[in-house]
Amino acid sequence: MLATTDESHCKFVADCLRDSGLWRLPDVEVETGRLWRISPSLFSLDSSFVRMLERLGYAIWSFYAAVNKLYLSGEYPWVNEYLDMGKPDSLVEHAHMNYQKRLLPGVIRPDILLMEQGARITELDSVPGGIGLTAAMSITYGRCGQEVLGGADGMISGFGAMLSAVSGMDNPAAAIVVSEESADYRPEMEWLAAELRARGRSVWMVRPEDVVFTEEALFIDIESQRIKLDVIYRFYELFDLKNIPKSELIAYAAKKKRVVVTPPYKHHLEEKLLLALINHPMLEGFFLREMGEEGFSLLREIVSPTWVLDSRPVPPHAVISGFQFRGEAVQDWRVVENATQKERRLVIKPSGFSPIAWGSRGVIVGHDVSSDKWAEAVESALANFNSSPSVLQEFHDGKRVRVRYYNESLDDIVEMEGRVRLCPYYFVEKDGVNLRGVLATVVPLDKKFIHGMLDAVMLPCKVEGDA
Description:
Elements: H1 6-19, E1 43-45, H2 47-73, H3 77-84, H4 89-95, E2 107-114, E3 119-125, H5 131-143, H6 154-167, E4 174-178, H7 186-198, E5 203-206, E6 212-213, E7 218-222, E8 225-228, E9 231-235, H8 247-255, E10 260-262, H9 274-277, H10 284-291, H11 293-302, E11 306-308, E12 324-325, E13 328-329, E14 346-350, E15 364-365, H12 371-383, E16 390-394, E17 400-407, E18 412-429, E19 432-444, E20 457-463
Parallel strand pairs: 1-20, 4-5, 4-9, 9-10
Antiparallel strand pairs: 2-3, 2-18, 6-7, 7-8, 11-16, 12-13, 14-15, 14-16, 17-18, 18-19, 19-20
Helix pairs in contact: 1-5, 2-10, 2-11, 5-7, 10-11
C-alpha cells in the first residue's frame, strides 16, 4: 500500500472497490463517478459501546431462539396468528418440520441508530445484504494500515466459520444462491465466494437455476466438475419463492437432510413485528426465562418501541399496550390519522413477506408526508392487516456526528455533519455469536432515510483510540 495522504487513501479505496466490481449499490445505476462518499479514516466507536455491541449479538440470537420456541410451541396462539398472516400454507407447514426445529439464522444484522443517549435498533435482518461490501471495505482500509473493528479479514473468516458451524464440517461445499429479485447483490456475493476460495474454502455464488437436483443430493457444475453441496446459503426472500426456479426442490432436499439450508425456511424469524413482541407485557415472563435477565434487559433497552397496526377492535376494558396519543391511551389506531405534523413523528413499515418490505421501500415517515397521505397510509396498513401486516415505530432523529470524506471537485478532504446508521454483522460460529465487522452509513441531516446513496459516507468502524 503506497498511499500516504488522506486523499490518496480515498482514491485507493475507490480503486480497490472498482477493481473488485463492488462500486455499486442496489437499485442505483451509475455508469461513471462515485456511488457514495469515501472517508479517509474509519468511523470511531467508543470502547464501552463496542463492548455492548459484542454482548448484543448473543442477545439477538437468544431472542431468535426464544421466538422460534414460542412459535413452534403455539403457547400464545395470537403470536402465531400474527406471524402466519398472509403466508401460504405450504410455508407454514414447512416452518413446523422437525428437521429444522432448532435451526436459526447463521448471520444476524441489526440496524442501529446512534442516539444522543445510547442507541436504538430499528430492524433485525437475518438475510442481510452488504456482507461482501463490508468485507471488501474492511480489507481495503486494513491495507491502508487502519485497525478495523472485527479485523480486516473478519467478515470473510466469520462467514466461512458460520458455514462450518451450520454443517458440522471443517470445509463444506457451499453455494451462495442469489435470486433474480436479489440480483443487485450478486457482485458482492460472487466476490465473497471468490475470496473464500482463495483462502481454501469450497464456496461458489450461483443462481437458483444452476442447482442440480437428484434424489441423493444437490449439485452444482463448476468448470466441468459436478460438486455435491453440503450447504446452501439462501440469499433470497421467502415471499419470492414462487418465482425462484428450483426453490421447491431445494426445500425438499433440506427436508430430506440432503443439504443444510441457512437461513432456514422460517418465515416467523423474518418479520419486523418481532420487535413488537420484545416489549409486550404478556410475553415478558417468557422472554425473561428463555433469554436470561442480561440479554432480555439489553434488548428491551435498545429496541425501538414497535407496535403491530392491528385493525381488529380492542375490548372496551383494554387499550393498545404502551402507546399513547395526545397523552391518552388508545383503543383504535385510526385516531392517529388526524395527527398534526408535529405529532406524526412516526414511521409505518411493512412487517415482511412483501417485495416492499426491505430497504426503504414501503416506508412512510409521518412528518415527511402530507396529512392526507399519512391518513391514507394508516388506513391502507389497517386494511391490509390480515394479508400483509405493518408496524408502527417512533421516528428517531439520531445523534449528530461529523465525518470526513473526499470531495472530488475540490480534490480535498472536507467535513460533513450527519446522522449515522450502524450495521454490525454477527456470525454464529462454533464458539459463539461473534461480531466480525460494523458498517457505518452517514447521511446529511436533511435526509429522512439512512441508507447507501450518492450523498452518504459509507465506511467500516474502529474502536476509538485504535490507529
